[in-house]
Amino acid sequence: MANRTDQLLRSAWTSEPPQLPPHAVRWLRQETGLTDSWTPTRALTAPPSELPEKAREVLAGIVGAEHMLTDERSRLGRTGGLSYLDLLAHKGIGSVSVPDAVVLPADPAEVAAVVKACAELGLSIVPFGGGTSVVGGVQASERSVIVDLARLDRLVLVDEVSRLAVFQAGVRAPDAEKALAEYGLTLGHVPQSFERATIGGFAATRSAGQASSGYGRFEDMVEGVRVATPRGEARFGVAPASAAGPDLRHLMIGSEGAFGVITEVTVRVRPLPKVRRYEGFVVDGCERGADVVRKLAQDRVLADVTRLSDVDETRVSFALTGGLKAAGLKAYLKARGVREPCMLILGWEAQDKTELAMRRAATLRKLRGAIRLGRVLGEAWRHGRFNGPRQRDALMNAGVCVETLETATHWSQLTELCTKVRQALTDSFERPIVMCHISHAYETGASLYFTVIAPRSLEDPAGQWKRAKAAACDAIAGLGTISHHHAVGVDHAPYLPAEIGDLGVEVLAAVKNTLDPSGILNPGKLIAP
């Protein structure tokens, strides 16, 4: 697997600056009042590194001088994640904290040595995988060192009998799938961050993939973890199931590097699917659509991918892409009695056509009130499933404020939560487009994933989104979780006590104090200072 020793991730996801097609710009101007004026940007620069000379010598002695970096380019390349505010900061809008150094250990033993040395030197550590956090999860702190895990890029072993694989934490998702495919296996974890995110990052954030209805969330896949802490290394997970006390794996899964640096992950794998089928449907109205998905979940016949877009997301999708000749489709649906079209994508993956046909038939038997639009729409979604970040880059280049947030709740509260978050976001802008979709469904509830598009403020671009996000988080409190799969990071840490209670926060703080008594591991993430 290729080393990635120069992770400059803050630019657009493509080599050329992405641009919106003319028809999309015209549509946005009509819908939101977008103009040709937007906040000027400038190149981000880094202050000189303040890493003490002794620390330079110690860290270089562990990882090698060529893997202990303090130059501006290397430090800026690992500054922040990929949130809207992070990307604004890299355009010179808002503020950002730049780390003093980047170290690239070669293996778990070197990671453990770096963690121990930083604890002794009083340097904070920010573990860095793909750098795709959108909640401040890789934000640098004072006197911080980025521990970039890019060189931990090995598939350690595959146990084909038990269907287990052990990956080092820095393996990117596409590389993991390529390696497993040689054994006829797959992990099946495909979030939108798939192209950049790493196995360790998936574990550290309790990631959920687009096919989680079929393959499960990432924590369902993790059989074991290896972790480096200031107190030493730890390994959790020795059997497929255990009654030997609480499962300590789950202290690390979702711990966001605050309890330790994950260096290896043992995951459950499955046979690589040989056939796939993705189809598009339309349901009339959000509540009816949610009810359709709920029944599929409760009858246990969900497709591997089950994604329901609300009216606005459906409208925007067709308008910006011209999908399925939008005008003709609208007339067709109206003739079928559909007044509020909501797009439903269903995707099945199987070992053979017979298995796929049986599973698809089981789903469709329970699918009531949905109009089938066919495979063209489903395949178009599958082939464009990773385009979101590129589209966001293009929107930002056009002067748009565009960002996402997500939550989850039980079915009985889904409509109320959706309504309140939508209203909070709508009230925060002048002419926004607020879209939502259900991307993950369970017997007891579902996730809600919101996307906001609005003209970017000329006076206070960063504050514009901060106020909107705070309003949305306040609306979520008491009705749903502050994060379904983006994690807590810095952004959500102030809202965690309302979800788990003060006692819950004390429990987390006690764990951190045991494993990281000097508080050097990813400060400010998960637990607010």
UniProtKB/TrEMBL annotation:
Which SUPFAM superfamilies does the entry mention? FAD-binding/transporter-associated domain-like, FAD-linked oxidases, C-terminal domain
Q: Which Pfam families does the annotation name?
A: FAD-oxidase_C (PF02913), FAD_binding_4 (PF01565)
Q: What Gene3D superfamilies does this protein's entry cite? A: 3.30.300.330, 3.30.465.10, 3.30.70.3450, Uridine Diphospho-n-acetylenolpyruvylglucosamine Reductase, domain 2 (3.30.43.10), Vanillyl-alcohol Oxidase, Chain A, domain 4 (1.10.45.10)
Origin, by domain of life?
Answer: Bacteria
* Keyword line: FAD, Flavoprotein, Oxidoreductase
| Residues of the FAD-binding PCMH-type domain | 95-272
Signal peptide positions are: none
The family annotation for this protein states: Belongs to the FAD-binding oxidoreductase/transferase type 4 family.
Its name, as the record gives it, is FAD-binding oxidoreductase
User: What species was this sequence derived from?
Assistant: Kibdelosporangium philippinense
